[in-house]
Amino acid sequence: MRARWQHRIPVRIRHYWKLLAICVAVIVTFGVVFSTVRVAPLVTSTGSANSGRVTQNIVGTTDLFDSGIAHQIDLTFRDDAYQRMLDDYFDQGEKDYVEADITIDGVLVQSVGIRLKGNSTLSGLTRDGQARTNGRTAPGGAGGFPGGQEAGAADEARPEGFPGGAPAGGGMGMSLLKSEEPETLPWLIRFDEFVEGRRYQGHREIAVRVAGMGGGQSVVNEATALQLLANAGISAEGYAYTSFTVNSRPTVARLVVEHPDEEFAADLGGNGVLYKSLSTGEFAYKGDDPTDYTEDFKQITQQGSQDLQPVIDLMRWVDRSSDAEFAADLDDHLDVDSFARYLAAQNLLVNSDDMAGPGKNYYLWYDLDTRKFSVIGWDYNLALTGNAEQDPNAAVSMGGFGGARAGQGGQDGGGLQLPEGMELPEGMELPEGMELPEGMEMPGGGGMPGGLGGHKLKERFLAADALMPAYQEAYRNLYDQMYAHDAATKAVDAIAKVLSTVDGRDRQAIDSEVQSLRTLLQQRASYLAGTSIIS
C-alpha cells in the first residue's frame, strides 16, 4: 500500500523533498516575521515630470472656458451602462465611470469617461423615488430630511427656517436630483479615462456643476465668485456657461468649471506639487507613515518623483509649534501674504465651505524652489449665499453663522436661526441661537453633512495678533478690487448677459437669482464700507 502511494509522487519530488521542505519552511517564516513590518513608499528621484504623458491634445474650435460667450455640449451614452453605474452608486457608494461620446462646441470626442461628482451634493439623488442613505436606499428624495419626501417637494417638506435652496442667498441649499434626469446631475468628465494620454485644450477633466446648492438654477453665485477672484488676480478655476443635452433629452443651461489638474497646476507657475484635500479627511498630524493619510490628501501632480512628506511635515509643525513659534516662523513654511489673501477672499465672498468647511474644499501647492505652501481655493457653489453682514474678523461657518477670531469679541455672523427640538450627537454643540427641527436627526446619526468643519491652520492664523496686519491689508486691497465702484454687481450683470444667450435657460429663475445676488452684493459692499477694517 505504501509503495503504491510513493510511486504516485514524481521521482524528482521524491529525490529533492528535503530541499522543497526547507524552501516551504523559509517562505512560512518570512510570512510570519515580516507580515508586521511597515512598508512605506520611498521616492528617490527629484525630477519634475508630471504623471500622465499627453499623446493627444484636442484643440477644439473655441476656448471652452471663454466665459464671455455661450457654449454647447451634447453627451450620449448607453442606458444599460448608466443603469449599472447607478447600481454601483446606490448599492456600494462607488462612483464608476461610464463610457460616453461628447460634442463640445461642434467638436466630437469619442469614448470619454463620465461619473457622478460630489458628496453632500449627491445626498439628494433619487432613483425611482428612492434616495441612497448610508449605503442603502430610503423612500423619498430629501437627502437626509425626515419623512421620506418625494423628489421635488423639498421646500414644502423642509422645516421652517432650516437651510434651504433659496436662490442666491438661501443657505446650504440641498438639491434634489433625479437619476431619470441625467441632464441635471453633477458630472465629472475625464478625457483620458478610456483613451490614454488624451486632453481637451490641455484639460484632463472638467466638471459640470449642479444647480440648487445655494445658487439656484443658474449657479450664478459660483460663477460670480470665480470671476471676482480672477479679477483680483487670485488663482481660480476657469468657468463658462453652456447648453447641455444628454441622450437627446431636454436641453438645460449648465455651468462648467475647470477641474484642478496638471494643466491647472502649470498655470500656477513655477516648479511645484499640487495636493488635494479630501472631504473624507482632516488636517491633522498622525505620524510619519504616508499610508495613514490616504483619506486626507491626494497627490495630483509629480507622482513618482515627489511624495506627501512636505504635507506631513507641515501638519506636524502646525500641530506642535507654540503660539509664539507659529506667528514668528509661519513664513518658513507658508507663503503668508498669499494665505492672507486666501482667507480674506473667503470672508469677502462669504464662503461657508472653504478649507474649514465640511467639504474641505482646497488644494495645497508646494513650491519646490521656495519650499513653501500656498492654499488654493475651489468649489465655490456655497459662496455668496450667506449673511451680507459677515464680520471681516470672523471665520465664516456652515449655515451662515460666524464666530469671532480668538482674542476678539467680534460680531456674531448674523447667523442661522433654526427651529427648536433637535438633539445633537454627544459632545457636539451648535452656535448660540441655532436650533434644529423638532424630531429631526442629523443625517446618518452624525453631524451636519461633513461636520461643521474647522481647520487648525486657518484658526491659528486668525488667532495670531502678529499676523493680523497681513490679513487686514489683504482684506482692504481685495475689497477695493471686488466691491469698490460696483465691481461685484458689474460682474454679475456681465454673467447675466451671457446667460441670456444660453439655450435651455430658465429665464424667470435666472432673473430672480441674479436680482437676489445683486441685492446681497450691494448689501455686502455697503456693510463692509462701514467696518473699521475698511473705513
How would the blueprint of this fold be written?
Blueprint: H1 2-7, H2 11-15, H3 17-34, E1 56-58, E2 71-77, H4 79-92, E3 98-104, E4 107-116, E5 125-127, E6 130-133, E7 136-139, H5 154-157, E8 177-178, E9 187-190, E10 198-200, E11 205-208, H6 220-231, E12 239-246, E13 252-258, H7 262-267, E14 272-277, E15 297-299, H8 309-320, H9 323-329, H10 336-348, E16 362-367, E17 372-377, E18 394-396, E19 402-404, H11 456-463, H12 468-482, H13 487-499, H14 507-529
Parallel strand pairs: 1-10, 2-12, 5-8
Antiparallel strand pairs: 2-3, 3-4, 4-9, 5-6, 6-7, 9-11, 11-13, 12-13, 14-15, 14-16, 16-17, 18-19
Helix pairs in contact: 6-13, 10-12, 13-14
Kindly report the spatial arrangement of strands forming the biggest sheet: 2-3-4-9-11-13-12
Label the structural class.
alpha+beta
Oligomer: single chain
Topology, number of strands:
19
Q: What share of the residues lie within helices?
A: 25-40%
**What separation lies between the terminal Cα atoms?**
104 Å
Q: How would the global form be characterised? A: globular
How confident overall, as mean pLDDT?
80
Uncertain spans: 37-51, 140-173, 399-404, 406-451
Characterization of the model:
The protein is of the alpha+beta class and 535 residues long. Helices cover 29% and strands 17% of the residues. It has 14 helices and 19 strands. It has helices at residues 2-7, 11-15, 17-34, 79-92, 154-157, 220-231, 262-267, 309-320, 323-329, 336-348, 456-463, 468-482, 487-499, 507-529; strands spanning 56-58, 71-77, 98-104, 107-116, 125-127, 130-133, 136-139, 177-178, 187-190, 198-200, 205-208, 239-246, 252-258, 272-277, 297-299, 362-367, 372-377, 394-396, 402-404. A seven-stranded mixed barrel has the order 2-3-4-9-11-13-12. A four-stranded mixed beta sheet has the order 7-6-5-8, with helices on one face. A hairpin with a 2-residue loop joins strand 5 (125-127) and strand 6 (130-133). Helix 13 (487-499) packs antiparallel against helix 14 (507-529). The longest helix is centred in the C-terminal third of the chain and has 23 residues, at 507-529. The relative contact order is 0.12. The model is unreliable at 37-51, 140-173, 399-404 and 406-451 (pLDDT under 50).
